[in-house]
Description:
Blueprint: H1 5-39, H2 41-66, H3 68-80, E1 85-89, H4 108-116, E2 121-135, E3 147-155, H5 157-163, E4 178-182, H6 183-189, E5 196-201, H7 203-211, H8 218-238, H9 249-268, H10 270-286, H11 291-306, H12 309-322, H13 329-344, E6 347-356, E7 369-373, H14 374-399, H15 403-410, H16 413-425, E8 435-440, H17 443-446, H18 450-468, E9 474-477, H19 479-523, H20 525-533, H21 538-579, H22 589-606, H23 608-615, H24 619-623, H25 640-643, H26 647-672, H27 676-698, H28 702-716, H29 724-733, H30 735-774, E10 778-782, H31 792-805, E11 810-817, E12 830-834, E13 840-848, E14 862-866, H32 884-887, E15 895-900, H33 908-918, E16 925-930, E17 933-938, H34 940-945, E18 953-956, E19 960-971, E20 988-992, H35 993-1004, H36 1017-1024, E21 1036-1043, H37 1049-1060, E22 1068-1072, H38 1073-1116, H39 1118-1126, H40 1131-1172, H41 1182-1208, H42 1212-1217
Parallel strand pairs: 3-7, 4-6, 13-20, 17-19
Antiparallel strand pairs: 1-8, 1-9, 2-3, 2-5, 2-8, 4-7, 5-6, 10-21, 10-22, 11-21, 12-13, 12-18, 14-19, 15-16, 18-19
Helix pairs in contact: 1-2, 1-21, 2-19, 2-21, 2-22, 3-19, 3-21, 6-37, 8-11, 8-13, 9-10, 9-12, 10-11, 12-15, 13-14, 13-15, 14-15, 14-16, 18-19, 19-20, 19-22, 19-23, 19-27, 19-30, 19-38, 21-22, 21-23, 26-27, 27-30, 27-40, 28-29, 28-40, 29-40, 30-38, 30-40, 38-41, 40-41
Amino acid sequence: MLHSPLIEDxxxxxxxxxKHSKTKTIWIIVRYIISDIAKRPRSxxxxxxxxxxxxxxxxxxxxxxxxxxxxxxxxxxxxxxxSDLLFTPMSSLNKSxxxxxxxxxxxxxEINEYFNVTDGIFGSxxxxxxxxxxxxxxxxxxxxxxxxxxxxxxxxxxxEISIGLGRRSTQNYLTANQVQVSAxxxxxLNASVGDVLQVNIDVDELISLLDGNTKNGSxxxxxxxxxxxxxxxxxxxxxxxxxxxxxxxxxxxxxxxDVVALADLLESNQELKNLSKEYIxxxxxxxxxxxxxxxxxxxxIEIEYQRNLSEDARTxxxxxxxxxxxxxxxxxxxxxxxxxxxxxxxxxxxxxxxKIEAPRGKWQDGFNALLMDQQNATxxxxxxxxxxxxxxxIDKRLNDDSTIGAVAELIPIDFVKSVVWNAxxxxxxxxxxxxxxxxxxxxxxVYQDKNTIKSSIxxxxxxxxxxxxxxxxxxxxxxxxxxxxxxxxxxxxIDNLIAAATMILLMLSILLIYSLMIGDVDEKTYEFGMLRxxxxxxxxxxxxxxxxxxxxxxxxxxxxxxxxxxxxxLVSMLIFATTDMVSNYVIADQALYLAVSLGxxxxxxxxIFPIQRALSKTLRDSLDLYHRTIQEVMVNVVKxxxxxxSLTQTFCSLLLVAIGFVSYYLIPMAFIFxxxxxxxxxxxxxxxxxxxxxxxxxxxxxxxxxxxxLNCILWICKFDRNLKQIIFKNLSGHAxxxxxxxxxxxxxxxxxxxxxxxxxxxSKVIGDALQSALGGDVTVMVMPTDKIGxxxxxxxxxxxxxxxxxxxxxQDYSFNAILLTHFPFxxxxxxxxxxxxxxxxxxxxxxxxxxxxxxIMQEYYLPDDYDDQVSYPKLKSGKKDGVYGLxxxxxxxxxxxxxxxxxxxxxxxxxxxxxxxxxxxxxxxxIEEDREIxxxxxxxxxxxxxxxxxxxxxxxxxxxxxINVRHTASKVPGFxxxxxxxxxxxxxxxxxxxxxxxxxxxxxxxDIRNISSIQQPYVREYLSNLPKGLTYGLPKTxxxxxxxxxxxxxxxxxxxxxxxxxxxxDQTLLFDVKTLKEEAENAFFYIQILNIxxxxxxxxxxFFLILISFVGxxxxxxxxxxxxxxxxxxxxxxxxxxxxxxxxxxTASGLLGTFIGISLAILLTLQILMxxxxxxxxxxxxxxxxxxxxxxxxxxIVASYLAVLDMKDKSxxxxxxxxx
Length: 1220
């Protein structure tokens, strides 16, 4: 094919012309947009401000949410301490016997080597957590308590500061015997900074920790040490029973005299002394015993021969002559153990250098603590031990004539102190730590969500145990990870609230910019016509409209990102300062993506319909200067076969398919995989759809409500009644334009009120659920694994003294007995049934004291039916005291019956005839009472097994017990009660203490108050370990205290700390219910602030939306406006016409939005209350409602006034010609 140079040159010129044409067109578009901005600055400013405001707020919110794990970490650290991982030595009962270094301690040096090769670990530090008492012996101050139970925390301050452990707490270094003490502890002891206090370590608790056996006391522990070290080789030499052979006092005295003579001889002749030593060593070496045991004996001989034998021999002589009777080696060893045990109960002085108001993650919140540095801990503890040891030995020598006093004569005090002190100086305390606290790297990434936490913890621990071997004798736990995970439910809630707020603000923004653009299109009809007449193509018109939208979108986005960065830096700085953790100050990636997406998509989506509107006009209509949209009539004929299917049908079908997919797949998947986030997202979407659906329905009432409100306004403003028909005509004429404005305002208002009411109601529901579950103002519980229970006698004494000290503090208190199901060695669950023994249901019985209902929060006690045979007294709340009926035996049928204890013959008549024929009395007969048990049961049992207060019933628990149902209730605080039949799977029943004692004694065939009457040895052992002074002999597992007056937080903290003084161990939990409720409400306070901010932004957007809508209304009705001016209406009347219209619109849409928002909030709360069965109380969000309503009125009035402002001062001729 031939190519002509002329043709090629022509193509190049044409291409150049096209390129030049595009450049010129773009330049024309730019100049047009700049000119339009100068001519109509208000539209540009509104669009710019809308993008700026929405993008800034939502991006800042999203960025702050990405930092929220830091807040959750801080909250969790306050609750559980700031150790990411805690390594503790495994109990001696659980340690692997294959590992050579099994120990009850952790070797810090060794374990740090493993940590150094484990990825993800930043550092570790050893700690020692000991229980004891802090004592104030200062007699010059009045004290509530002379001593308080305290946790003594020994730590390496330098190491902890270097790895950030306890970073939010004080960083002052401690020296010598300086300590830091909880402020509440000092208040309880009436001590202050600078005072000298005494610390007493609980040796039995420490020994149970080291030995893994809670039953043996300190004497048994120390004897076991002697037995496993010294006795073991001696048994191989002298026989297994050498320690139990009785040695007569005279033999010991004669032997002591011989030993003195021999010792004097050896000391006078060094060569002979050396020969005797060599002989003894040869004898030991000749014995068939392990090398380690030989070494121990040889070391003892070496130490003894280094001392003066004569002095030790005379010590033996003093021991011998102080003995009053014969003795065994075992008794001597037990005496030594007793001396050591008494010495171990020592105290040491400490100087308080600082009081700690709050732990701030240094340790778990909720208990008294004393902190001291490990650098001086060894010397302080050893000095205290040796001082007490010397005092004990000297005291026994002088005042004890028993074997212990004699054994005290054997002990060389100065020598023992020297040996122990020298040995302690060779101890490197970190190699004997009781726990190892770890801090992880990149904590913000680790604690992003539950899955990340779980995978990170598993990965790090797997690395560690792969390196050490899986039988390494430590166990790893992470209470911080558990606590943080619990807070993610709140994070999911916040995320859903933000998602809903984003959707509402996005809809408002799109509608606002759409209104701007559609208004511009209507106003510029003539301009667009002229551009098209001059050759401007439709495609360039689309580009023009998009560029026009982007002129305020891109600057708004850039300004929003700059503002967001500045504000995000301030928010980050505040979060970093609060949490003492630093991430970075840049905007989070998710927030950046959201900002850019919103900034670009909002104007693009908003332009779809304006572009269609601009392109739909013919050139003739566009050039008609007097054309008005309100005069426009459009007829669009589309053949059905071309469309294929209606848009409405397609939308409805897709919506139904989506609902089915969510119902049949997503909701079950959320439950199966325990995906709380997915479940909340589904609920959130459902409620937003419900809001929109309700809005579409109630929008039918918008018109009649507007007219009714307008009539009310004109009834008040009687001077403007002549304007009624004009305003009604405006409402009718502007209906299509006002519809989107009122719809979006109602939608925003309903969401804001729904969120505000829901937050307020949810906050109250959580507080009520806590109070209902725990019951008292202060509730003490033991964990289910602790079968011993509370020290009832000591706690009662303490509470009685509290009531005597301050008669206005405590109204009453009450103990609960252990549930029969949890009673060790007994028959487990109880089965509840009718007299016909069908149907059956589970129930768990527990005893309460007569005053139980006086100590709980009675507003959560929901009684149902009562036994008519009992006259119930009234509680302060006016409700009947149902527990009173448990102790009222009126109407009970108690039967005395004979029982064949040995069960030799079962039938009564056969047994009687058998013994009558033998003419002898029947043996093993016991007369006992068949007692009818009074009980309170949940109302749900009535519907499941048809038992109520009028139904005789039975309980099977090893045997049948006759039951008298005194009372049914839907809710009893502190117990698991419900009015639903499902309660039969987990429900509890309440009985009296005497009835519970009867059931236990009947089951055990004895009396637990008389241990010797119990046949089972394991039960006797368990009962012997129970605290002394238990009422009815039953272990108590919970305590509730009711205050008589309003108490401050400081009062409650001090009271709780004094009460903790009588807790047996760390298995006892104390709940300050009021403080817990306040903390739950505070958590929702900040979310309510967020909701108010969303309301303010929504109102701001609504203001612009109303302004644009009314400006459009005024311009569309400009001809009518001019005619009204011409026939005599003044400017003020015309202004009031639009103000009345605006007030009618906003009031009507506000009422409908309020109705929908509050209705949905009530529905949501009723759904929650349906599960927890608490009374409903309407919590109206007054602050949010006032802000939105008052803001709506101001918005309507100001926007309508500004809309008329530009026109009312124009001449009538200009208005009638439409030259505005």
